[in-house]
Structures are given as structure tokens and as C-alpha cells.
């Protein structure tokens, strides 16, 4: 595969590399739900774009005031898509989502969970003083919601169904990430338990753990630039914070039948950062 050189090209390169041949396109015939598109820089936007290029039919979700931004962003997708209302903290929205998908398609093959939120009081080095309510809101929106989304869609998923969620390494403590970091650790555990309970029904659940990107959600992470600097220095492949589309190919792979034997996994798309203990000759 030739290297992707820009934000624009990464998904297209992935799509070109995974399509054609006797098997047709990687996601041909798949019906997928993609959450988390709010701008063109959203990681989920790259996934939606690449999934369409790989032959999938998709529907998006958004909520409240963000919906206007989502509808503007989706005009840049290769093919038109509908946007369904989903606030993951509104149980009724999951009932309506299930009804909508059942009416629209009858069944669904996969979904991307690309949703996270923490109140400002729950990040920024205020870990010891964060209130229970703020920590709970971060957990509910960013981790419990993976369970809610999966349970809403599972009855419509035939064997071979696949759910993927976006993660930031929850196995260690990061500067300022605080209760969002705890929520990501919880998300990883939620993924494993869903994989355990839905595996017997042929449904797979996996996470993709990414390096840092300059998205709307990231703008709420204090000292994000320090994290980026560390990442750029340590990742053996280097790291481009403006290229979220680099995540799209691995997500589409996990949504595809090529990944039929993979569940409960955390796939790192981080330039190799997680494999490296320290950077030679650099003082921080
Ligand atoms: N940007 C990064 O550096 C980075 C790195 C690793 C993982 N991630 C993860 O990727 C995912 C997508 O984030 P992004 O960086 O693309 O940012 P983004 O701001 O583009 O997307 C975040 C999405 O979460 C949605 N959301 C927030 N609260 C919600 C709610 N109550 N109900 C429904 N949707 C809600 C927003 O509408 C938005 O679409 C998140 O889980 C994030 O933690 C991001």
C-alpha cells in the first residue's frame, strides 16, 4: 500500500487498496450506523467516507445543536446520507433509533461508536476534586453508551454483526485526561463484556485505540499540544494530528467479514506509540 500523504487521501488510499478483485468491495452490501460525525475533522467522518467508498450503505446519528454542524459536514460525503437523532443520555432515543433502523433496513450489519464527553471540571488536572456527578456524566456518555448502543442494535444484527468503538489508551494515566481517562478504561472493559455476551450470537465487539487528533472533542482536552509533542517524538511512524482518516481503514476492516475471528480486541492505530517505553536522547 502506498503511504497516505494527507487528510484527504488516507481513506481513499485505504478504499482503493481494499476494493476490487474477485471478492468485490470490502463492505459491499453492508448496512452500517455511524455515530460521532460533527465536523469534517471528526474521526467518524473519515470512517463514513471510507465505508461509502468501500460499498457500504450508511446512516449517521447526531443530536441537539450539533445536528446542524453534522448536516453541513455530511454534504462533503461521496453519497447522501440520513441523520438520525441520538443523544446517548436519552433512553427514548435508543428506542426510536431501533424503530428507525428496523423500518429502514429490517436488519443492520455494524455500527461505529465515536462518542465521548466529559464536563470541564472532570479534566484538566482536577482529578482529586471532580464531583461524583461530573465523573458519572463522563462515564455515562463515553462508556456506558457503548452498551446502550449495542443492545439497541443487537436484535437487528444477524450473525457476523460488528460493533467498533473509538478509544484513547485507557491502560495508563495521562496528563489532564483525568475522568475521561477513567471513562476510556471503562469503555475498554465494556467492550470486553459485550464481546463475551454477544459472541454466542455471532456479534463481534472491538475497539480502535487512536493517537491524538485535532477534533472538536480534543479542543476540550487541556494541554493537548504537550500530548501531541510527546506522540510525534515517540511514535516510530511519526504522527499527523490532522489526519484522522488514517483510522478509517482499520475501522472498516473490523466492520468487515475479513475480521470474522476478531472480538474483544483493542487495535492500536497510534503510529506504534504504545510499543515504545521511552524516547532515546529526549528530555521531557
Ligand atoms: N481526537 C482525539 O485525539 C481522539 C483520540 C482517540 C480517541 N478519540 C475518540 O474518538 C471519538 C470521536 O471523537 P472525535 O475526536 O472525532 O471528536 P468529535 O468532537 O468530532 O466527535 C465527538 C462526538 O461525540 C458526540 N457526542 C457527545 N456527547 C454526545 C451525546 N450525549 N450523545 C450523542 N453523541 C454525543 C458529539 O456530537 C460528536 O459527534 C471519541 O470517543 C473520542 O474520545 C479521539
Explained architecture:
With 284 residues, the protein is of the alpha/beta class. The chain has a single domain (24-269), classed as Rossmann fold. Helices cover 37% and strands 12% of the residues. The chain contains eight helices and seven strands. It has helices at 9-18, 43-53, 66-74, 91-104, 132-153, 178-198, 224-234, 248-255; strands spanning 31-34, 57-62, 83-85, 110-113, 162-167, 204-210, 266-269. It has a seven-stranded parallel β-sheet with strand order 3-2-1-4-5-6-7, sandwiched between helices. Helix 3 links the parallel strand 2 (57-62) and strand 3. Helix 1 (9-18) runs parallel beside helix 2, helix 2 crosses helix 8 and helix 4 packs parallel to helix 5. The site of nicotinamide-adenine-dinucleotide has 29 residues, from helix 2 and strand 5. Nicotinamide-adenine-dinucleotide is lined by residues 36-39, 42-44, 62-63, 66, 86-89, 114-117, 141, 166-168, 210, 212-213, 215-218.
Average the pLDDT over all residues and give the rounded result.
92
In whole angstroms, how far apart are the ends? Answer: 35 Å
User: Major β-sheet, in short?
Assistant: 7 strands, parallel
Q: Compute the CA-based radius of gyration.
A: 18 Å
CATH topology descriptor = Rossmann fold
Structural class: alpha/beta
Please identify, by name, the CATH architecture: 3-Layer(aba) Sandwich
Spans with pLDDT under 50 lasting ≥5 residues? 1-8
Number of helices: 8
Instruction: Write the element-wise H/E pattern from the N-terminal end onward.
Output: HEHEHEHEHEHEHHE
Strand order of the largest sheet: 3-2-1-4-5-6-7
Number of strands: 7
Amino acid at each position: 500500500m502506498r503511504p497516505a500523504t494527507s487528510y484527504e487521501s488516507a481513506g481513499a488510499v485505504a478504499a482503493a487498496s481494499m476494493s476490487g478483485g474477485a471478492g468485490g468491495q470490502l463492505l459491499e452490501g453492508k448496512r452500517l450506523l455511524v455515530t460521532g460525525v460533527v465536523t469534517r475533522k471528526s474521526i467518524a467522518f473519515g470512517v463514513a467516507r471510507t465505508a461509502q467508498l468501500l460499498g457500504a450503505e450508511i446512516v449517521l446519528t447526531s443530536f441537539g445543536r450539533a445536528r446542524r454542524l453534522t448536516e453541513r459536514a455530511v454534504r462533503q460525503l461521496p453519497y447522501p446520507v440520513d441523520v438520525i437523532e441520538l443523544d446517548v443520555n436519552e433512553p427514548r432515543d435508543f428506542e426510536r433509533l431501533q424503530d428507525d433502523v428496523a423500518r429502514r433496513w429490517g436488519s443492520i450489519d455494524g455500527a461505529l461508536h465515536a462518542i465521548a464527553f466529559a464536563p470541564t471540571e472532570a479534566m484538566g488536572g482536577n482529578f482529586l476534586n471532580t464531583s461524583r456527578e461530573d465523573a458519572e456524566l463522563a462515564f455515562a456518555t463515553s462508556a456506558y453508551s457503548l452498551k446502550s448502543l449495542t443492545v439497541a442494535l443487537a436484535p437487528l444484527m444477524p450473525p457476523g454483526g460488528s460493533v467498533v468503538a473509538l478509544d484513547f489508551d485507557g491502560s495508563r494515566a495521562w496528563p489532564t485526561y483525568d475522568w475521561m481517562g477513567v471513562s476510556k478504561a471503562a469503555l475498554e472493559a465494556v467492550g470486553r463484556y459485550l464481546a463475551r455476551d454477544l459472541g454466542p450470537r455471532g456479534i463481534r465487539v472491538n475497539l480502535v485505540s487512536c493517537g491524538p487528533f485535532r477534533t472538536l472533542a480534543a479542543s476540550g482536552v487541556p494541554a493537548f499540544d504537550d500530548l501531541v509533542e510527546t506522540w510525534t517524538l515517540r511514535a516510530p511512524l511519526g504522527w499527523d494530528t490532522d489526519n484522522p482518516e488514517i483510522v478509517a481503514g482499520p475501522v472498516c476492516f473490523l466492520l468487515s467479514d475479513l475480521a470474522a475471528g476478531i472480538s474483544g480486541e483493542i487495535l492500536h492505530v497510534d503510529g506504534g506509540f504504545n510499543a515504545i517505553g521511552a524516547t532515546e536522547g529526549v528530555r521531557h
